[in-house]
Predict the structure.
Amino acid sequence: MAVGLQSVVRTMSSVTSLAPCPDCGHLVSQRAETCPSCARPLRKPAPREGLFLKSMNVWVAVVLGTIVAGVAFVVIVPLFLAVAAYVTTWLAR
């Protein structure tokens, strides 16, 4: 019983989730970023964020949060004081 190459490739690719490389035809894992035979990129690599960038993002959020809280305090407190002064003068009539 002769088995064709295409049926072997189909069987192997369905069992082990391999797919042929578009350039060289080498069977490659579907999770591979490049073909190990010809080094053709098969998919875009996932972005990698290092520890430095993660910690930098936290510090940027802390600094921006502090700035926003400070601006809100500078705007809200005088507004509150102005409203309180208006209400006390209105009640004193």
In short: The chain has two domains: 1-46, 47-93.
